[in-house]
Write a structure and sequence with these properties.
Blueprint (H helix, E strand, L loop, with lengths): L2 E6 L7 H14 L4 E6 L1 H4 L6 H18 L6 E5 L5 H12 L3 H5 L2 H7 L7 H15 L5 E3 L5 H18 L7 E3 L33 H9 L17 H13 L4 H7 L5 H23 L4 H30 L2
Parallel strand pairs: 1-2, 2-3, 4-5
Helix pairs in contact: 3-12, 3-13, 4-7, 4-13, 7-8, 9-12, 10-12
Length: about 325
Amino acid sequence: MKTIFSGIKPTGDLHLGNYFGALSQWVDLQHDHHSIFCVVDYHAITVPQDKKALHNNIIAIARSYLAAGIDPKKSIIFRQSDIKEHTELAWILNCTSARMSDLENMTQYKDAASKQINPSVGLFDYPILMAADILLYNTDTVPVGHDQLQHVELARDLAKRFNHDYGETFKIPSALIRSEGSRIMGLDDPTKKMSKSIGENNCISLNDSPEVATKKIMRAATDSDTVIKYDPANKPGISNLLTILSILENKKIKDLEKEFTDCGYGQFKQRIANSVSKFLTNFQEKAKHYSDEQVLTILADGQKQVEPLAATVLAKVRTQLGL
């Protein structure tokens, strides 16, 4: 059985884009893969965090995994900072296989650094930690969004370099990008990916009430036309809303276009609002089943399961280096 690994930073509420682009895919994959899902809290501290908020966010993200349908009996859920091998392997890769040019070419760093007055070294170097996260578990497949593809490519490159220089050690991972729904765009700016950092009205949080979500959808940017048609170049807002509805109702976009041929944007948006509200109510009800104590217990169990896996790989790395 092949191993998949992925994770999300605990930096706030997850949104609909996170669910469609990551969580729902993980749920599907866990049935026929050895699945390892991480709350990557070390990645969160590349920018300043309030310690109480970070602690609460770690629990909240793990709870979202569970509410989405990640089953602890089929998948491993753990907290990155509980496994010391992540940072040790990251340092080893920094020294043996990574090059400054690798990191200077990272588009996400350039974007993030432009928003920071004095960015941390960690913000520059975190792709190496991400590579360590992946390589530490002999990962075959990494389900990611388009914006993370460059990081998986770096992990592949580092693994190949280390194997070439020190002998066969790491499995070479591959990226898995969802064909539909991997890139949900913002509601108020459908030319950019949905993101909570852009603004409250840009995204639908998984914790939004149905009333709040409905208001956001009804205000979502569209165009001056009246045709409900999938055309991302000329009708990005309508195209994004069609994508959301097609996933929620498991219908093909072409069928939805036909269904809404004689409908206005208001009626179209109300249908989406109803589907989103139903989804959020169901998700939030599932989340309520898990107390903080239960979530922490699941994370601790996950830690026990991955500790021997991480220790085995790192021991091999150390042997190859003569450490």
